[in-house]
Amino acid sequence: MICPYCGEDNDHVVDSRSMGGGTAIRRRRECIKCGRRFTTYEHIDDIPLMIVKRNGRREPFLREKIERGIRLACQKRAISEDQVQEMTGTVEKRIFRQSEKEVESTVVGEMVMECLREVDQVAYVRFASVYRSFKDVNEFMAELSQFLDHPSRKGERKKGKSNSKNGKAGSKSRGKKK
């Protein structure tokens, strides 16, 4: 560091302390030439993550938007606040792990849909119907059939509700033989 008193670029650190919960470091330095002390602060550069919308517009990443979308999809469902926060946190971590300064909004939407798919089928379909902006019922049904054919659901469908009238899978009529 250049000494603010004599302009010499030769000093040594006398003391370092963490500040702001570990987000900054305060350093006391002493100039080798003039012997005067001065303080410097080291902070993490906070480069905001930008979301690139479908129309090309860019806006700053806001965790609250993801949380709001998940909360709306989960409205009147048996999903706890902890689950909403966990899904929001999962998406947020995945976004920041990409180490990109800009992330497409479509990537974020797909991440949210993955989380919802694992937690609640109805919430997933609700989110997908808004996120994918279906133009007609046929597009919606195509998405729904993909969801129903998804590998993680194959075993679930077999165990789930049956199509028989009395609700018992594989029940047979036990009437008299003719």
Helix residue percentage:
40-55%
Q: Over the alpha carbons, how many angstroms does the gyration radius reach?
A: 28 Å
Low-confidence stretches: 153-178
State the distance separating the first and last CA atoms.
Answer: 101 Å
Order of helices and strands: EEEEEHHEHHHH
Percentage beta strand: 15-25%
Strands side by side in the biggest sheet = 1-2-3
Please give the largest β-sheet.
3 strands, antiparallel
Shape: elongated
Protein described:
There is one protein chain. The longest helix has 17 residues, at 81-97. The strands form 2 sheets. Strands 1-2-3 form a 3-stranded antiparallel β-sheet, with no helix packed on it. Helix 1 crosses helix 2 (81-97), helix 1 (63-73) crosses helix 4 (121-131) and helix 2 packs antiparallel against helix 3 (105-119). The protein has 6 helices and 6 strands. The chain folds into 2 domains: 11-43; 50-158. Helices cover 41% and strands 19% of the residues.
